[in-house]
Amino acid sequence: MEAINASKLRSQFLYLLRTRRSAQGTWYIHEWSGEQGCLPVLILSMKESSHHRRPAVVFLHGNNKCKEWLRPLLEAYASRGYVAVAIDSRYHGDRASSMTTYREVLLYHHGEKGIQCHSYLIRNSMDYLSILQVWDLIKLADYLTQREDIDPSKIGITGESLGGMHAWFAAAADTCYAVAVPIIGVQGFRWSIDHDKWQSRVDSIKDVFQEARVDLGKRVIDKEVVENVSCIYHRVWDRIAPGLASQFDSPYTIPIIAPRPLLILNGEKDPRCPLEGLEIPKSRARKAYEEAHCPDKFKLIAQPGIGHELTKFMVKEASDWFDRFLK
């Protein structure tokens, strides 16, 4: 295996973020609702008489949820001395006009002339949703490191499902995130194509793939369709997250998080994040942490008998990991 140049890969990822980010104007960090160019932030912390800097944990929600859904978890972290942070992902929560906005944006976008176009086929400010979400998290880190109540060297990031994937990419792209715990969000996207394990992931945004299938004149979404580089799977994913099934897939971006502490939490029977697809990124990550002389800072836990769900066990393991490395 050719050695992964972490600095080079991170630079390529950041270049992609800068060149594909939204052209909607100046970015603002607000602790209230706003436009897509604004980032609503929910921050919870305990009032203290002393004004010392505290560790922070960013928790990211999954698909079709919002930052308020995480409030019980944020309160638990805040009660234990953390500054607990959550944001709305793009087209979710305060950044959505309805409960179906995210789905609608994945399917359609109104062009400048009012012509309705499929978002996976055009390059515009609504494309590259996952990539732009990572850009949001980089700007969030910039904001958090400037707060007087947060220790800038002790910012952790976690999330479940879609949020877990965003946490993984944010930690790979931005070293401001000192500790990472992606939950049910890490998989081998290329591996899933090569081993015919893509169905469950495609089903998570099936409407998008069905629209693409119709446009391309295909009768069904099958393995042959998915494997073809010019076909549906890559057209869709290259719009949502360019490089997801190639240079920025988990075998490359998981190892570059080293030497920062990384805990990956998955379900043993999760069809969206099959364990077999994590063997290569796991082995490469272990090698990276061993070479950095900190093998104890990497761990992958697959909860027995669990599918694609966030469990109390996972919440506890994540909490313990942050306590170990942020306090």
UniProtKB/TrEMBL annotation:
Signal sequence residues: none
UniProt-recorded Gene Ontology molecular function terms: hydrolase activity
SUPFAM superfamilies, alphabetized: alpha/beta-Hydrolases
Domain AB hydrolase-1, first and last residues per copy: 57-308
Domain of life, source organism: Eukaryota
InterPro entries associated with the record: AB_hydrolase_1, AB_hydrolase_fold
Name by which UniProt lists this protein: AB hydrolase-1 domain-containing protein
